[in-house]
Amino acid sequence: MTLLERTHRPKPARAPRPRTEEVLFDQPGPRARRRIRIATALSLVPLTALAVFVVQRFAAHGQLDADQWRPYLTWPIIHYLLVGAGNTLLVTAVAALLAFPLGGALALLRMSRAATPRWLARGYIELLRAVPLLLLLYLFLFGLPRLGIALPTFWQLVVPIVLTHAAVIAELVRAGVLALDRGQGEAAQSLGLSHWQAMRDVVAPQALRRLTPALVSQLVRLLKDSTLGYVVSFLELLHRVRVLGEYNHTVLSAYLVAAAAFVLVNAALSKIADRLEQQR
Predict the structure, then answer these.
(1) pLDDT above 70 for 4
(2) Which CATH number fits domain 75-279: 3.40.640.10, 1.10.3720.10, 1.10.530.10, 3.30.70.100?
(3) Which terminal CB of the chain, N or C, has fewer other CB atoms within 10 Å?
């Protein structure tokens, strides 16, 4: 083989990385796949019958009439819903920009060698993971004003979401760091890096790269939690849909429109998570 042939020889294709579920679970064999297909077909029969029954009942009560859907084709209502969708995305974006860095900082404190910050971070994480988000929203809505603290409506929704999701993100990051080979940090420290330098420059970037799909999935949950804006009377998409449906007496069609919007956004985020999983 000449030097030119060696230089231009194509590189072998890199085998695709296995997906997470392929690593955690054994792939089913032919008999198991056949049983899965049969069980899926059998489960579709009652689900299809239920769907047909529901559609027939909706049609019988006039819920599928054109008058129920025509208002959502007019620009004033479309603009009204778009403003609500913008508010939902704004809450999601601001909460994510605050929750993800806070969660990362909590994870680092949780893994600190010093006892005080480690126990403080652990206490915060355990407490906020145990307290329901709805209860925290009511605390900000009714509790803080009694203490003389009055937050704007927007922050009454965003701050509880940030506090709750930061605790969950902290555990995700900590699990990702602990899942790495300990030799990564030890090798970095053997080169003269301190514990925090090794964590910042070597361990954390690798852990975050592996956790990207899980963090995107957490962003989906954050988006869905923004629908709790009705508790503090913040007019995000779902709250506007509720007001619109009650005003026009089109509650079912209004909620179906909102459901379709959330499905589209969440499907897009899930698709991003799948691509990141494949490229990892």
Answers:
(1) no
(2) 1.10.3720.10
(3) N
Distance CA 77, CA 245 (A): 11
d(CA 80, CA 241): 9
Q: What is the mean pLDDT of residues 4-13?
A: 51
The string of pLDDT tens digits covering residues 137-193 is 999 888 888 888 888 999 999 999 999 999 999 988 888 877 777 666 667 667 666
Q: Max Cα separation, the chain?
A: 84
Instruction: For residue range 75-108, list pLDDT tens digits in order.
Output: 888 888 889 889 999 999 999 999 999 998 898 8
| Residue the block writes with tokens 């956790």 | 211
Nearest to 255 by CA among 265, 267, 245: 245
Q: Cβ contacts of residue 267 below 8 Å, gap of 6+?
A: none
Rounded to whole angstroms, the Cα distance separating 131 from 177 reads 25
* Burial (CB count within 10 angstroms: exposed 0-12, middle 13-18, buried 19+), residue 226: buried
The alpha carbon of residue 194 and the mean position of all alpha carbons in its chain are separated, in whole angstroms, by 34
CA dist 178 and 211 (Å) reads: 12
